[in-house]
Amino acid sequence: MGDEMYDNKHLNRAKNRPHIDLANIEELKKEVDSEKPAVKKEKLEKKDDVVIDTVEKNDTMEDNEGEEEEIDMPILVDDSFDDDLNFNDLDSSQDFYEDDMDDIVSDYVALFRASDIEEQLESISDSDALHDWLAPQGRAFQWLVNEDERMINADDPFLVQRYVLAVLFYATSGDNWDNDSVHWMTLLHECYWNRKVKGKNVGVVECDEDKRVIRLDLPETNLQGSIPSEIGLLDGLKTLNLDSNGISGTIPSTISRLTNLTSLSFEYNRLTGKIPSKLSKLTNLAELKLNHNDLSGTVPAAVCTLRQQSLYLFWSDCDDHGHVPAVECSCCTECCDGLDMCYSQIPLDDDFER
After folding, report:
1. How many CB atoms lie within 10 A of CB 43?
2. What is the dihedral of CA 87, 88, 92, 98, to 10 degrees?
3. Are strands 342-344 and 334-336 parallel, antiparallel or unpaired?
4. Over 60: is that where the pLDDT of 14 sits?
5. CA distance from start to end of the chain
6. Helices 159-171 and 107-122, interaxial angle, to 10°?
7. Residue 267, Cβ density class (10 Å: 0-12 exposed, 13-18 middle, ≥19 buried)
8. Where are the beta strands (DSSP E) in 23-121?
9. Please, what's the b/e burial string for 318-345 (b: 16 or more CB within 10 A of its CB; e: otherwise)?
10. Among 6, 123, 292, 337, which residue's beta carbon has the most beta carbons within 10 A?
11. How far apart are CA 227 and CA 271, in angstroms?
């Protein structure tokens, strides 16, 4: 099956690349500098019409002026084969690379690749979390460097996107997701991290022409944990649907960075805390569903101003039928009781045309 699917499009990827101790990158780099390795040149094969550049290692890592010489990274990713795969037909345990592939990554290239990736990720995530190997950020960092078969480099335009989706996976107990983890964390481009469930795609449902994720649907997938703040880095998102899971914690204010969002749905989870006032920055938002959670407080007036712009559906647990509502909301279109009933509050036709 694998041979038919790859159809001469499969990439030549390292099968036994060096494992990098991410806790000691700087110390390892110093060791490399002091060893001054001999001249070595590794010519990588041209295989299956995919060319991987040559990597050259000079006899010293520094020039005569003491300036560190840049290490040329091999080009390890060619996206052309992604489009030819019907990934919904693959078993999640399938071996995605050929048994006879050559090792193509040297210790030196692997080390400096890890260092460059670390530098990029430290600019977007808390450094302590990034170096906590039990935290979602640390686990995602480890995966990118030592486990991800796609082997992207620090200058890859999709590094941040891939990292954020990996953080989301680890932050919500991805190993226990339903639907075979919707093919998350495989070697394919993130735009193919999805699976058809009951006739609908679940996971990364849609990307734009630049391969930025614009629709992320993970309803009823058994997400357990919290939404990481890094979610706000998926700046192309238009739809974010995490309905009917076991997500706890608060709504991260960084979601306010997703200014392209038109639909945001977190209903039927265990979210706590207040609705962030920064959601008012989502001026393209048309649908907001926060009902059937454990949220509290008053919906900020700034968020209510969205009803005067694009927001025509706003659901929360603001029902006051016989008890004090969990959420006080003067602008919600639907108020729910947090159990199983919801009531229309504002006729949609009053202010907006659907």
Report:
1. 10
2. -30
3. antiparallel
4. no
5. 47
6. 80
7. buried
8. 40-42, 46-47, 50-51, 55-57
9. bbeeeeebbbebebbbbbbbbeeebeeb
10. 292
11. 10
Q: What is the crossing angle of helices 25-35 and 107-122, to 10°?
A: 140
| Residues 6 or more apart in contact with residue 337 via CB below 8 angstroms | 317, 319, 321, 323
Residue pLDDT, tens place only, 297-347? 999 999 999 999 999 999 999 986 655 678 999 999 999 986 777 878 765
Number of other CB atoms surrounding residue 346 within 10 Å? 17
- CA 105, distance to chain mean position in Å, is 25
Does the structure show a pLDDT above 80 at 141? Answer: yes
Q: Does the CA dihedral 136-138-139-143 come out positive or negative? A: positive
* Other beta carbons within 10 Å of 4: 6
Question: What SS3 class is residue 306?
Answer: helix
Give the 3-state secondary structure of residue 135. Answer: coil
* H or E stretch covering 240: strand 239-241
Q: Give the tokens for residue 229.
A: 């703040």
| 3-class SS of residue 307 | helix
C-alpha 211/C-alpha 197 separation (Å) is 23
Cβ atoms of residues 233 and 209 within 8 Å: no
The torsion angle over the Cα atoms of residues 104, 109, 111 and 115, rounded to 10 degrees, is -130
Q: What Rg value do the Cα atoms of the chain yield, rounded? A: 24
